[in-house]
Amino acid sequence: MNADLVSGSHTLGQSLYHLEFCPKYRYNALRSEHVKAFLKDTLLEVAEKYGMRIHAIGLMPDHVHLFVELPPKLSVSQALQYFKGTSSRKIFEKFQGFRFRFPNGNFWSRGNFFRSVGSVTADVVKYYVEHQEEEEVKIKSQSQQLTVLDFS
After folding, report:
1. Which residues are catalytic?
2. Per-residue model confidence as pLDDT tens digits over 112-126
3. Secondary structure (DSSP) of the chain
4. What angle, rounded to 10 degrees, do the helices at 33-49 and 76-94 form?
């Protein structure tokens, strides 16, 4: 997997997330291979439209897993809004029978799960933050800024 640091004007970083969301009432709406294939294509279209990069998609009968890289200007809540909103609208257009199962027009539940994912662990970041000053004194003669990777 290629998850390099993304740079923009005055920014440098990596924004990888594990996202999870499910249909309303945790209904097994994604049992059909036709629905799964359509949803996968729709999620890929949404990602391309908004500059996101999907590294992996997991479609279970009652929930969706995405491993996605977000552009620096896009928040997790915005990304989830784009994924859930667009896919809901398109699913109702393509598979009209879902209108009877979800009469209020909400295909996805309001809840979701997200977790940031990176190349360093939480312990490494904690150590870096707590000990950066000490380490900087040790290598003061070098003209490089310390990075989190220096502590891993």
Report:
1. 128
2. 999 998 877 767 777
3. ---PPEEETTEEE--EEEEEE-BGGG--TT-SHHHHHHHHHHHHHHHHHTT-EEEEEEEETTEEEEEEE--TT--HHHHHHHHHHHHHHHHHHH-TTHHHHSTTS--B-S--EEEEE-SS-HHHHHHHHHHHHHHHHHTTTS-----GGGG-
4. 140
